[in-house]
Structures are given as C-alpha cells and as structure tokens.
User: Fold these one by one.
Assistant:
Number 1:
Amino acid sequence: MLNTSLVNRHLTITTEPIDEGALLCARTMSVGMGAVVYFLGVVRGNEDGKTISAIEYEAFEKMVTHQFNVLFAEMEKRWPIESVRLVHRIGVVKVNEPSLWVEVIAPHRGEAFAACQWLIDGMKRVVPIWKKPVA
Amino acid sequence: MLNTSLVNRHLTITTEPIDEGALLCARTMSVGMGAVVYFLGVVRGNEDGKTISAIEYEAFEKMVTHQFNVLFAEMEKRWPIESVRLVHRIGVVKVNEPSLWVEVIAPHRGEAFAACQWLIDGMKRVVPIWKKPVA
Amino acid sequence: MEISVHFYSYLKELTGCARTVETLAADTTVGVLHDQLMEKFPKLTAMKKSTLISVGVEYQPRDYVLHDGEEVSLFPPVQGG
Amino acid sequence: MEISVHFYSYLKELTGCARTVETLAADTTVGVLHDQLMEKFPKLTAMKKSTLISVGVEYQPRDYVLHDGEEVSLFPPVQGG
C-alpha cells in the first residue's frame, strides 16, 4: 500500500534491541501538535504463572508490514494524528527488555491516547506475530 | 503527606526545560512489569484561535505538591502501578516545548493507560497551576 | 482573628494585589470571608461561581470554619498540563 | 493448479513442516483447501476453529476462491506486543 497521507509513518520490524534514545532524537512535531503518547511493551518474567527468561517472537513479515499499514491508514482516517512511529522487535527478547515501542502525535491528548490504544488493540487482532516463552 | 507506599514516586515542578533523555535514563522497572505509558504535553502555537509564542505557567507550589501526592495515593489504590513520574514545567514555556511529562509503569497495558489518563484528568481538576498565553 | 488571603492567576489581576490580611470575628466561615472579599474587591463578584478556595493546601467548602492564622487562597479553575 | 501453503507458529509444529505445495482443482475455495490440509495433517483438526487463513497478505474467508500461484498461510491467533 502506498502511503499517500501527509502523516509521518515509521515502521520497523527488527531483531535488534529497541533504542528509545535514538527514537526520541528522531522525533519531529509541528507547532500545531500538543500531545505525544508513547507506549513500551516489556517482556515480563512470567507467562501463565511460569517463570521465563525470554520470549521468542516469530513474524510473517510481509503480512506484518501490510497489516500495520492498513491499521495506520484507518487510524489516520479516525483521528487527526501527525505522526505514528512503531517498532516491534522479533526473535528472542529477554525479560525486562521492550518488544514494542509505539508513539502517536496529535493536536490533543484525548485523540493521541485513543489512537495509540486503538492501534495496539488492532495489532493484537490482525498483525501476524506470535510469541513462544523461553524457559 | 508521607509516601508510605512501595511505589516509585517522582514529582518535579521546575522552570527548567524537561529533559526526556535524562528521565529515560533514570527509569527503573522490575521483571514483573510489562507496560510503560508515557505522555508529553506540548505548548501549541495557538490558543483559542490566536497565534501565541509561549504560555506562562503559574503555580501555587506548596499546594501543587500536596495535590499531586493525593492523586498519586489514590492512583496507587486503584491500579497496581510500580512507578509514577511526573514533571511539570512552570514559568514561560515556548511553543513546541513540553510543559508536562508523565510516565506510568504497571504490569499490564490497560492498567498503565487507565492510570496515566486518570492522573492527567485529576491534575486538570485539582492541581493549582494556571496558564497565560504570551503573544 | 487575622487571616492571610492569597490571590492567584487572574484573580490577582482583578484585585490588583497578590495578598491581603483580613480581620474576622471568631468562627467566621470561608463563605463569609469570600463575601467580605467581594465587597472589598468588587471585581471578584463576576468570578464568584467559578472561584476555588483552599485553606492551607486543601480545598474547603463555604461552610468551613476558619481558625486564627490559617492561610486562605482564592483562584480560578486550574489549567495544568 | 498449484497452491503453496505456509504454516506459522505452533501450526508449524503440528504439521512438522513450514511449507507444503497442494495440487487443487480450479476454483477450489480456502475452506476446501483447509479440509484437505486437515486430512493430510490430522493434528491441525484440533485447531480448526481458531486457525486464521490469509491469501498473500490479506485475511480471506473460507469461501474465497483460490487462483493458481497464490500463497496461502495458516496460523494461530496473533499475539504481538
């Protein structure tokens, strides 16, 4: 899908650790924007009551990219966002390390929170990524 | 109010610019935590339809600190959060610069989003800070 | 008794001062103090409905009974963030 | 026609392979292909209800008619984040 919107879209699917500092430095926002909502999903030390050391994420990458772009397009129709950036790590992610980073920039707080939560909910419904706990 | 909870509470009211990078470096979270929600309120270039260059924030500081601690205590009763950190800038804050930074860490996403939004709503109801647009 | 009163934000602009000291009879309530302040600073009257009042660092209702030495603050709706 | 089928996550563990190629009559639907795969890999049957099916990068229902050369993927509910 071609990104014909004026929204700044950034999507990275990577086996590398998520570098929040670098993502922060790369942020741009215009003077009309008043709200940045930022979410970090971090691997917890237990899954279904069992202690784990990591989670291995598997992705069907070509479809992941497409489905994220479908979600971005729908999100941009629903809310006046200026920027959406999302990084999902795949492969083995150790406990206490982030697997997901999302940032949404919009004029107002309510829009930014709603869009960010809608995007994560949508991801958990349609984006083909799977987890396997590592003991 | 004495902070007798085990929650990591951090509150700063400052005339200095908000240093997201430094706040990011100071983050700590235990292995049971899965979600970080982070909000940045940024001064927009217009207020009530007029173009502005900055907003001047005035605070009744002693009451600000007390009212934030009341909100933190209530938030900690409602949601199993591990950490809440909040920085509010006062004095003159230029357009495109952040006036508010909030971070909430909890085991799950829903709790972290709900607690963070509740805290900001509460702030806008009871914390004595006022804005004056600067032309 | 003497009660120190502080004004914040545009209430300060309406009164032209950040602080005043009021001499009140014992057991005066916040509401009576507010009425007395509106007589002294008539421009406060227009903001009567939206004015928030704290004693020390706590919000208090109009029927709160003041004690000697307490600090009262009057301010408009808050706007943090 | 020939249809390439990919398995992801634990469906791959149930079939013991990541990919298979099925020979099908023209106008075969996704549902018929799924039934044929469950015959070939009986362990898939237990997951029948929760299995998601895409053709290329789009989700498709059981009545979607397949075309020669299309790539079909079968996988369990997604769990990103």
Number 2:
Amino acid sequence: MAMKKFMNDPADLTPELLEGYVAAYPSKVKLVNGKLVCRAEEKSADKVALVTLGGAGHEPALSGFVGEGMLDISVVGDIFAAPGPPNVYQALKMAAEKHVGVLFIILNHAGDVMSANMAMDMLENDGLADKVKIINTHEDIAPGVDTPIEDRRGLVGCVGVYKVAGAAAEAGKSLDEVFAVADKFNNQMATLAVALKTATHPSTGGAIFELAADEMEIGMGQHGEAGTGRSAMLSADKTAEVMATQLIKAVGATEGDSVLVMINGAGATTLMEMFIVFRGIKTYLDTLGIKIGASCVGEYLTVQEMGGFQMFIAKLDDELQAAWDAPADTAYMTVR
Amino acid sequence: MAMKKFMNDPADLTPELLEGYVAAYPSKVKLVNGKLVCRAEEKSADKVALVTLGGAGHEPALSGFVGEGMLDISVVGDIFAAPGPPNVYQALKMAAEKHVGVLFIILNHAGDVMSANMAMDMLENDGLADKVKIINTHEDIAPGVDTPIEDRRGLVGCVGVYKVAGAAAEAGKSLDEVFAVADKFNNQMATLAVALKTATHPSTGGAIFELAADEMEIGMGQHGEAGTGRSAMLSADKTAEVMATQLIKAVGATEGDSVLVMINGAGATTLMEMFIVFRGIKTYLDTLGIKIGASCVGEYLTVQEMGGFQMFIAKLDDELQAAWDAPADTAYMTVR
Amino acid sequence: MTITAETIQTMILSSATELRSHHEELSVLDSATGDGDHGTTIARAMDAVVKAAQDKASEPIGEMLHACGWEIMCSDGGSTGPLYGSLYMGMGKATKGKTELTGEDFAAMFEEGMATLRKQTKAEPGDKTLIDALVPGVETLRASIDAGKSIPEAMADSAAAAAAGAAKTCDYQAKFGRARNLGERSIGPVDAGATSMSYLFAGFAAAL
Amino acid sequence: MTITAETIQTMILSSATELRSHHEELSVLDSATGDGDHGTTIARAMDAVVKAAQDKASEPIGEMLHACGWEIMCSDGGSTGPLYGSLYMGMGKATKGKTELTGEDFAAMFEEGMATLRKQTKAEPGDKTLIDALVPGVETLRASIDAGKSIPEAMADSAAAAAAGAAKTCDYQAKFGRARNLGERSIGPVDAGATSMSYLFAGFAAAL
Ligand SMILES: Nc1ncnc2c1ncn2[C@@H]1O[C@H](COP(=O)(O)OP(=O)(O)O)[C@@H](O)[C@H]1O
Ligand SMILES: Nc1ncnc2c1ncn2[C@@H]1O[C@H](COP(=O)(O)OP(=O)(O)O)[C@@H](O)[C@H]1O
Ligand SMILES: [Mg+2]
Ligand SMILES: [Mg+2]
Ligand SMILES: [Mg+2]
Ligand SMILES: [Mg+2]
C-alpha cells in the first residue's frame, strides 16, 4: 500500500521539514548550516547554553524546544537517525566558544551516544571539552529499574530536563549549578511507553512494527523497538494504573510527595484519550496521597503516526517546581 | 475490528475527558456543572466575556482555548454533538449577568446553530439578550466562495476569532469594539481541509468515512462529512499550492498584503508533514509577494485520528496583527 | 373514543424501544453522509425520554411530553436534540393540562409538535432531512382523523406514510445538516434522521 | 603482488553498489528488531562514500579512505555513521600517504579499521551487531594473508567468513542498539548491521 503522507521526495524530508519549521516560527528559531536549529536571538554569553542532538521524525522534539528558557541549539540528524559527529562538534564548538559553559543533553540511544562521544573527542582537541558537562537521559523503565543505565533508553524525559536546566541557565546559574539541577531531575524521573498501532517510516514506507488488532505493548520504544509487555488491550483506567504504579515505584514517590506528570502522545492517539488516561492517573495518585504539582498533556516527542503514549513522572521539590514553572518561550512549550 | 483507543465505557467519554483536562490544567480551567469549561480565575466584570459552544472529540478545541486572552466559557456537548440549549443558555446567562457584555461565537454547524438560537430565545425571556452579540464562523471555502454563508461550515478559524476577540476583550474594549474586531477577522479568513485517512468515531467504533489507498479529499469537513474534491494523492508542495491558491483568492490577498497562516493537524498527520506543507505555502506566497505576518503549525481542532489538515489563511492589518500577537495563557495556546 | 395519559406514556416508551433497537443501523446510515453518530445520539435522547416519561407518569399528558422534550434538549444531542426536543415540547404545549385526548386533540398535538420543530429549521420536504418523514406522517394522521378513522387506525396510516417518506429520501440531494456539502454525492443513501423519525412513528403506532 | 589506489577505489565503489542494491532488504531486516531504516541509512552513507572516492581519486589510499569515513560521519547516519565512518577512517589511518599496498599492508589496514570501529562500542562477537560479521571477516583475512594467499584469495575467504558470521546472528540475543530491549524476542532474525557488513566485504571481494 502506498504511504499516505504529505511529502515530496523522501530523501528531502529532513531539510524540508526544518525549513518549514523555521519559516513558521522565525521569531523563535533559525537554521544554521542546514542542520542546527538555533535561537533566533542568541542568549547572552554569560549564561550557560543548552545543546542537544537527535534524529528527526519525532516533531516537535527536539528542535521545537529551542528558545528562551529551554534549548540553545538542537543538532538534527536524519529521520530516526542521529546526526553525524561533525555537526554535533560544530554545535558544541559554537556554544562553548560563545558561552560560559555548555550543558550537553544526550538521549541514550546508540547512534546519539556514539556521535556525541566522537564530537566530544574532537572538542577535546580544541581544548574546549572542559566547558561542557554532559547529561545522559535514560529514564525508560521498560527493561526494569535494575537494568544498567546504558541499557535504558532516553524517552520524553529530555523535555523536562531542557525545561528545568533551561530555567537555571536563564537565571544565570553557573555550569555546575545548571548541571546539578538537571542531574537531580534526571535521577528522579521515569518514563514508560505504550503502543497500540504502528507507524510508517516516512523514508521507506514500511511499518515500524506489528501489533495484533486486540494487542497493546507496554514498554515500546520511540522507534518501534519492541518492549516486553505485550498484552490484550486494557481500559484507559487500567492502563493508567498499571503504568503509574511502575513509574511511582521507580521514582520512589510516597504519600505527601509532589510529582510532575507528563502524558506525551505518540502521534495518532487523541488528546481525548490522553485526558481520560490522565484522569485515571489522578484518581490513582489521589488514593496514594501523592500530589500532582505540575502536569501537561500533549504531543512533545512523537513517533510519526504511531498510536500510544509515553507516561512520564518525576519527583518534584521546590527547586524543580520553580524551574518547571519558570517562563519559557519556544514554539512548542510556552510558559508565561 | 476492535477500536484501538484508550477509553473506559464509551458512554462516559465526554465527562471523563473533561475531568481529565481540568485535572491536568487546574491553574487554567475549572468545570462548572459538568459541561461548562470556565477559567480557573474569572476575568473582571468590566470586560467583555467570550462564550462558545461545540461538540467534544475535537480536542484541544474548543475548551483548550479557555483562559487569559481567549475564551471565558466553552459549552461542551457530547462527542461530535452540539450541547443542548439548556446548557448553552446557562453559560450565556452566567456570562451576561456578570460581564458588561458577551461575545458569543458559534461555528456554523446545524446542531450548534439550532442550540444557540434556542438558548438565545431563552435569554430573551430574561431580558439579557441585548448584552450578547453573535459571531457565526463559516469560513470553509470547500463549497465555493459564492455559496450562501449558511451553507459554509465553521472550521478551525474559530480559534483565530477567539484569539483576536479575546485580546480586544482583555484590553477592556466595549462589546461593540470587540465585536468589530472579531467581525473584521471573520470576514477576511478562509479555511480548506484535506483528508487522507479516516478516523474511528469513539462512541460507535465505526469509520467516519472511506477513502481509497491512493486518494485524498480536499474539502472534507471536520466530522468526515465529505467535500467535493477527491483526487489522487498529491505531493506536499502541490497540495500546499492547490489549497493556498484557493484560500488566497478567497481572502483577496495580493502583493504586499500580510496574512496569518495556520496549519491545523486533523490528528494522525505529523508535524513533520505539516512543516513540509508550510514550507510549500511559504515558497508559494513568496512568489506572490504576500508576507506571512504570523503563523502557527500544530493541532488545534482535531477529528480524532483522522489523517489530513486544515489550512487557514486570514488577511492581517495592524490591529489584527497586534491582537494575534497579544499575550494569551490557555492550556493549548500561550503567547508571551 | 379518547386515549389516556397512560396510553400516551405507553406510546412514548414503545417508540423509545423501537428507536433504541435500531441505533446501530442509524449510525451506519449517518456515516454515509454525516458523522456516523445519529444512532448514538438518538439512543442518548431516548434514555432521557424514558426517564422523563416515567418521572412524570402521574402528570397530565402535556406536562409529560414537555418533560420529554426538555430532557432531550439537555442530552447534548447535536442536531437531533433541538429538533426532536422541540417536537416533544410542541406536542406538550398542545396538550398542556389534558389527561385524555380526542382524535382532534391527537391530530392537533402532532401538528403543534411539527410546527415547533419546523421553527428550528428552514428545511422543506425534499431536502433530505427528518422533515421528509415528519410531514407526510403528520399530514396523513390529520387526513385519516378527518376522514373519521379511529386513533389507532390513523396512527397506523401515519406510520406507513412516515416510512414511505423516509424511504424516498434516497432520491434526494441533501440541503441541510452535515450532508449538504456532499452535493450530488448525497443522492443514494436514505437520510438517517428521516429514518429515525419513521421509527418514532412506527413505535407510536405499535403501542395502540 | 601489491594493489594500487585505483584498485582500492574500485573496491570501494563495488561495495557501495553491492550495499545500495540491498538497501530495501536491510531496512526490512532492521524493522524486525530496530526502527526499519538501516537500508536507508546505508544508502545515504554509500552516496557519501562514492562521492568521496571519486573526489579523492588522485590522492593516496589513506587520504581517499579517510575522506570516505569523514563523509559517512557527515551523512547523519544514526548508529551506522560513527561505526562505518570509523571503520573507513581507521583503514585510512593505516594507509596514510600510501599509493600501493602489500598483503601485509592490506591486512593491517582492515585491522586498524576494525580497531577504530571497536573504540566506538563495547559490543563483542555474539552480541548480535555488525561486529559479528566484521571480526570473522578481518580475522580470516589476516589468517589467509599469513598463510601466504594472494590478496584476492584472502579477501574472498574474508567475505565468506563475514557472511557466515552474519548468518549466525539469527541465533543470538541482541545486547546493543535498538534491539537490546527486545530481550529473547530478538532471537530469530539476522542482524541488519551484520548483514550490511557482510555485503561490504562481499563488495570488496567482488572487485578483485
Ligand atoms: N438543519 C436541519 N434541518 C432538519 N434536519 C436536520 C438538520 N440538520 C440535521 N438534520 C437531521 O439530523 C440528522 C442527523 O442527526 P445527528 O447525526 O444526530 O446530528 P449531527 O448531524 O449533529 O451529528 C440528519 O440525518 C437530518 O435528518
Ligand atoms: N552499540 C552498537 N554497537 C555495535 N553495533 C551497533 C550498535 N548499535 C547499533 N549497531 C548496529 O547498527 C545496526 C542498526 O543500524 P541503523 O539502523 O543504521 O541505526 P539505528 O539503530 O540508529 O537506526 C544494528 O543492526 C547493529 O548491527
Ligand atoms: Mg534509525
Ligand atoms: Mg454528530
Ligand atoms: Mg450525526
Ligand atoms: Mg535502524
């Protein structure tokens, strides 16, 4: 069957989507050298810059969060493919030469990590590596919380890291301080994904996985990499409870604690469904006496038109709550 | 085939989704009487209130735009079904009793219009109807621009009306002034929808329309009501040009004019695709010498997991540009 | 011969049962030219009707019918709510305070219901809406009563005329509702609302 | 017997052709356990390789190979970019400034390529990655050269060993890359990256 997507030559997907994005939000972002999405107006040099990298095809992530209060540069690869080391190096160099420090946020996926490592090696040759601190996100709990962190993927949690670290950077904190807040958040967050329906890889036209008509899969990755939790379809309430139970356990939240809950739609799952799921989570957390200090429901990191969502929970303290609530002005996350 | 959606009892879809929505955004919205989505903090009485009505299942529309700078009350019906006159009446009464005036925005769909008319009759009995002015949106150009306006549907353009009228209301303008800005915008906007893939009606589990594997339909309504423009799949650039050509003609924009362009995803169409389409529009408008004064790309009024999008274009002048750029703080549209 | 409030209640419940038993078919019909939910909406409206008819069992006919209409209005029924709601409310207005109805009362009740419904819409016969079942249904009822037939006989004639009217909608092009944008492609399927209206009349007739 | 820069260029172009002709198969293999794009990525990387090999046709072997590696890195190739890129860059490092290679040079070139690639990943043979084709391919090449075989003979042995290594990955459980979260469900299909690596070796051998 023909792929039903609005596109021109599949080989041009990434450059065209980036051109369209910056054309739609010219007051927020600009494109440097074709693959680096940078703020339209640069942050002042005395503030720490935030740099991240990742494949395209997950819009609005990652580049949708470039702007005041969040990222400074997003290095874009190709569809579901990490950017090559040279571009990552260029972004790090630009940021490190201009700013007092750079927080470099890497989602734990093999290609991203390898590219990031090679770029850091190149930066080392320039004597700039000391200005960079790395946060590696790996909050997927699908393989189990005892799994070594290098085996746990980075999912939508990166958006939370951009937000809290971005607030610290915008406030003029030092690199060590910005790192500290990001690291704290990174260590008390967890995500679990559930998939209902496959998506079409826009370059190949092929389905990225298969699921039977009555099946769902908890633990699916964000490129259709399967997890280990296939089951029959559950109700929204049951799905919410099963997933929230594991997440709450993973972050170690107990009665009286406050958490951030994010529901991130994979693509085809409606906000209607996500609201119903959110209601289920709220009901469940109420029974545990856990407070929802902050929440958002929407599409932040998608997987084309996949059906499903990622449920994200992080423990909040006053510092993280304030950082989450701080102003931001990006195309896909704005806080007044 | 079983419907693959996260839900509980289909009969509870609307109340559950509304509960989930207000639970996720408690600082922005609250639920009154089960079906009225109101601002968490009411606007002061000396400002004009904005009230709208419509069915559920199109999230984030319409209730996602309740908040500072946009709507005051959204009266929610059931899935794809207008709210009954009694609830609409209650909302209008609440708003008219408290505020200096009410702008009542109705999307032109049979059920909504009938409900609104009956509610206005009831309000007349209370002597409150004079405090209300009505904007009926009917910017769908699918049936042709010469078609009588009662035969043209209201599509995503309502969101633009909420924004510009909301800015005027927030600025303390009189009802006549708020009406005037909304009316001006309403008369120089146009929308065209394109569908690629059907959606499942969440109450029945049935597909809302059929399209062959290689077909698209320009002019599809937002409930799967067919249009008249079935054709073979076109490229993103071609789709953008075909649609933009008609819209530009409908709003009468010419060289030197400035327009607002909104791309509204129907549900399953990715931001990636919409960015590529936006790039196509930009290229086309550049050739005409028409400036894009404002733009946004995202999901504002969805049709479940339908594949496709609505392209919206409105002519801007300084007043409308300023109103569009004015601050807003709703769950699904925030402007700093 | 007259009929009592109890019989009217039986008619109401009978038509609710009839409509609910066809809800899936009605949604399928609606999906051909509309948004595929007419059966769902009708089922929700009929739940409201049954509740109102039971709550108001001891009240006069007009009060019972008015309550049915109001509850339909409250059921968030898209186009169906205001249309069906005002049909019942108009029928209630004509029978306010009455506990039994003559043949003349009975025909007038339907006429007032139709008039109230028609205030909500400019649709005329031939426009492929529920008007295409309602108008022949009510006109035939009046003609049969005027011809001296009994209420059950007249109601049976009426139901047959409503059904025939609904069946003919397949030849019409939609001028109202969600189907109007389809243009000529709306010709072919019968209209969902006309079909449900014919089941309403069939349900009334079956109870007598 | 030695081989020239021209022959190396022929080998590079031959392997690019071989890999590109299998790109659909490679994406299908990747979709079983990964994200279904390995063929797309490889095709993009090979476009870069062909361009570099042509641009640097008049330069020494090491410079040509280095350019190929660098262009792969620049092609935004997910996991493939750093891995394949460093293989070529390592091969280039070992042959910097050389315009022809002895058998010993030839084996050393592959060894240095493998070593550079392996700096990027902790994957070992048996972990169901391209390492499972690369290691037997390079080790067999070295053994055949040491046993006195000609470069074409050794390369043919090497390609056969790489293919056998790739074929065996169907029995392994993935420990790296996107497939690792599948656990035991990753057993069954052969690994996409190991398969492409075996085609790379096959392409090299076919040119000699
Ligand atoms: N303006 C109108 N006038 C008369 N009948 C209408 C009108 N709009 C819709 N209808 C009737 O309502 C039916 C659809 O009802 P329903 O599906 O419940 O409402 P909606 O169109 O809001 O989803 C149509 O088949 C038609 O008979
Ligand atoms: N960490 C790793 N170490 C070694 N090989 C790897 C690693 N990660 C992935 N691979 C190889 O790369 C192949 C997938 O490549 P490709 O699909 O191009 O990249 P991606 O996984 O980024 O989409 C896998 O089949 C595997 O052989
Ligand atoms: Mg990939
Ligand atoms: Mg409806
Ligand atoms: Mg309908
Ligand atoms: Mg892959």
